[in-house]
Amino acid sequence: MVQSATAGEVSKAFGRFSRRALVEPLTITNRGDEALVLMSMQEYTRLKSRDRVAMSLDEVTQDMRDAVAASKAPEESKAFNHELD
């Protein structure tokens, strides 16, 4: 379960919450709305490394093309097959 705290709570005890956020991301709410997430640099770096990279066709290697050709769509994607008709 994701941890959650109000902005006021975090402001009063930042050290405690920052230590907890090193283990698991912390959602910080402001006036009842989810506003921010406090997380470790390691987790942030992991998430940022998964950002999509746009490439032009001439930058796509043969290994990449082979990987795409060999890939299989997940079973649940069959629910969208009717959109191809």
Topology of this structure?
Blueprint: E1 3-6, H1 7-12, H2 14-21, E2 26-30, E3 33-38, H3 41-48, H4 62-70
Parallel strand pairs: 1-2
Antiparallel strand pairs: 2-3
Protein model, in words:
The chain is of the alpha+beta class and 85 residues long. It has one domain (1-70): YefM-like domain (YefM-like fold, 3-Layer(aba) Sandwich), CATH 3.40.1620.10. Helix content is 36%, strand content 18%. The protein is built from 4 helices and 3 strands; from the N terminus they run βααββαα. The protein has helices spanning 7-12, 14-21, 41-48, 62-70, and strands spanning 3-6, 26-30, 33-38. The protein has a 3-stranded mixed beta sheet with strand order 1-2-3. A hairpin with a 2-residue loop joins strand 2 (26-30) and strand 3 (33-38). The two termini are 41 Å apart.
Short description:
36% of the residues lie in helices and 18% in strands.
What keywords describe this structure?
4 helices; 36% helix; YefM-like fold
